[in-house]
Task: structure prediction
Amino acid sequence: MKTSIKIKNGLSDIAAIVAREFRIISTSYAILLVLIGGIFIYGFLYNYMYEPNLIRNAPVAVVDRSHSALSRQYTRLIDAAPQVSVYTTEPDFPGAKELLKKGEVIGIIYSPVSTGAGRRSSSCTGLPMHSSIIWQCRKHRPGP
Result:
């Protein structure tokens, strides 16, 4: 019995302290301005710090070795994403790598021969991507 009474007294003491602190905070306009105004200003300005680092419409080359309906659908879905735009569809990897070296694209998405087969056999199909990080950092400037 004594333990439960001590716990109740301790909790009521904590509740009284919290209520007193809230009363003190609510009477000071400076504290309210920092707490409420600072939270809103930080919330609005936080996104603007990282906005220049967002990649938009980055040109990529797609190497489609599968030539299946599923790989063409993947290519359309990739092109619909705001981060990338399909610059070209290359028949072979060396041609796409040459575009990467020239700086015309910043990445290569490779669709292997087995892309369409993975869907029928219930196995996972991955699309490997090769990119040039140096080109992204030095040359790519995001759009407006």
Summary: The helical segments are 2-27, 29-50, 69-80, 93-102, 115-120, 133-138. The radius of gyration is 28 Å. The chain has a mean pLDDT of 79. Strands lie at 58-64, 84-90, 107-111, 129-131.
